[in-house]
C-alpha cells in the first residue's frame, strides 16, 4: 500500500533543514545566519529565508536583535544549570504522578530511538528524546504542567546538542532511558522520583572539558 506524499513548501523545507543543522551541531552556537547568504546557498527567495528564520526564532533555536542577522542561540553551562533547576521539580511531579504506569507513547519514542541507524543525524536522536520526555509529561494530564514544560523546550533541545559527544554510543543513551521508563513503571513512587533525579543529574552534567 502506498502512502500519498505530503507536499512541502520551500519555507517548511528550509526550516526543517536549518533546524536539523542547528540541532546536529553542524551550525555552532553564536553563528550568524545572514538572509542573503542563505538565499544564495539554498536557491530560494529572501522572503522564504525570512519566514524560515522567523519560525526558528519562535522555537527559540535562533535569536535575533533589531537590524542584525539571526544567530544560533547559545546555551552556556550556567544556562543548563538554571534549566535543570527549573526542570527538576517538573519532572519530579511527573515521576510521582506516573509511578506504576507504562506510557505507550514514551515506549514508542524509545523504540524509535533504538531503531535509528548508526549514522542517523544527532537531530533525529534529539527529536525522539524530546518525544519521550514530552510523552511522560503529557501522560500526567495536567495542562499547566505541559505549558510550563513546553516553555523550556527550545533550551532543552539546544542543551541536547551539547550532549552529542557524551553519547557517541547510542546504545548507552537508549539503555539509560529504558532503565528510566522501567523504574517509573515498576510502581514505587519514591524509586521513580529517585530514578528521574538521577537521570537528570547524570545526563545533564557538564560535557567533557568544562
TrEMBL record:
Domain of life: Bacteria
Name of a matching Pfam family: GntR
Matching CDD domains: WHTH_GntR (cd07377)
Gene3D superfamilies, per database record: GntR ligand-binding domain-like (1.20.120.530), Winged helix-like DNA-binding domain superfamily/Winged helix DNA-binding domain (1.10.10.10)
Span of domain HTH gntR-type: 8-75
Tagged with keyword Mitochondrion: no
TM region(s), chain numbering: none
InterPro entries referenced in this protein's UniProt entry, alphabetically: GntR_C (IPR011711), TF_FadR/GntR_C (IPR008920), Tscrpt_reg_HTH_GntR (IPR000524), WH-like_DNA-bd_sf (IPR036388), WH_DNA-bd_sf (IPR036390)
Swiss-Prot/TrEMBL keywords: DNA-binding, Transcription, Transcription regulation
Recorded GO MF terms: DNA binding; DNA-binding transcription factor activity
Descriptive protein name: Transcriptional regulator
Organism of provenance: Planomonospora sphaerica
